[in-house]
Design goal:
Order of helices and strands: HEHEHEHEEH
CATH topology: Glutaredoxin
Strand content: 15-25%
Number of strands: 5
CATH architecture: 3-Layer(aba) Sandwich
CATH superfamily: Glutaredoxin
Length: about 130
Amino acid sequence: MISPLVRRLVEVWKYPAADTGNLPQLLADNEHLVLFFPGDPERYPEGDDVAVILPELVRAFEGRLNAAVVHSENETALRQRYPFKAWPGLVFLRRGVQLGSICKVKDWADYLEQIEALLGRETGAEQAIPSVNL
């Protein structure tokens, strides 16, 4: 089940719906990508809050960060590849390497500080993207 606010990210904001089939292309097309895992809206209503905040975060990091939405049928497979601690989750990637995640709803200043730190994080060559077979 997808909430109307999460659906709006795809339909209005034109964020791609990330799945196991298109993830390799999304990673190739975006140096920095945040995957939004909203979770079941009945169990994790905070997903709607993050769905409202996400476009503002992308705007705040304009040109440095793009977003994709992971729908429920792909959440398990993609969460195994990019683990995070709690729903809803934002998983930050650089060329497919996980930089970290931000879970649940945060204060605006915390988002800005944490995302800036994640985007500035170094990644080693040993973490290069293996061929993605999800």
